[in-house]
Input
Amino acid sequence: MIKSPTTKTLQEACQLLLAGDLVAIPTETVYGLAADATNEQAVAKIYAAKSRPQFNPLIIHHYDVKHLEDYVEFNDLAYHLAAVFWPGPLTMVLPRRSQSEISHLAGAGLNTLAVRVPNHPVTLALLKQLQRPLAAPSANRSNTISPTTASDVLASLGERVPLILDGGAAMVGLESTILDLTTAQPTILRPGGVSLEEIAAVIGPVHEAKDHSKIKAPGMMKRHYAPCLPLRLQAVEKRSGEFHLGFGAIKGDISLSDRGDLQEAAANLFRMLRDYDNPERYQGLAVAPIPNQGLGRAINDRLHRASAQEE
Ligand code: TXA
Ligand code: MG
Output
């Protein structure tokens, strides 16, 4: 349902987000489909609502650098860029802090996180009131055009999102520029609201990722997380030396979801793969069969990549 931002509706948005529900939020670039970035279950709802066949990593939003510092490591360049472009349509990819509370699903298991401070008064007010980071991809179904008005969001997601905060038409109307600062040379992964020239004027030469198609399917990205241990799929029973992740009727050593709930399994997937990827204790990881429907497709996509040890 679309609602105008008022004290009351902002309060309602906070309550929904704290309860692990989704809220569509206005930003200066496009509308975002937001969830509490520290809540794995809430983040899983984003992928379900968007019908994403893959777990693309999401951008983490907060209202200032100080709060984002809890989750990623800023270097001098990043501080400088933040001072010039935030709030605004620049997203920076930075090293994830090891103690970061951000959901591993939101980060797609990577050791980096994409962060930004959006420039919209409604969303800045919401973030201040909430005092939590929001994970938010564009608020549309997968493979459709990004929404620049509240009614675009309603048309694309309908009742999948309980509340759409109406912040008017997005001023920029195009997604944020994604700049990777974890590479030897700062690299633009996705062109967007801030131009390469504007960035270069501040920090000097900037690389441009040649193949933008890569960012559309970051599951194929080189640095995508893969476990150290060999990963065996469709594992109905565990073999000696393995740690077994169960699902539904297959209990395993620990279950991705006892009740066979794909959203719960998605929420647990990256964290459990990390937690038990321990060559000192196990010789391999095994995962029970996951039904290939709904979020199960994204889970299987990720598992296939991880088991192939793709570079
Ligand atoms: O303008 C925007 O950036 C909007 C608003 C809502 O903030 N958000 C947005 O999110 O466009 P989304 O999920 O549609 O696109 C995020 C992109 C994805 O293509 C993803 O691959 C990339 O950011 N990304 C996220 N984390 C990354 C990481 N750690 N390394 C490289 N790319 C990353
Ligand atoms: Mg998008």
About this structure: The longest strand covers residues 90-95.
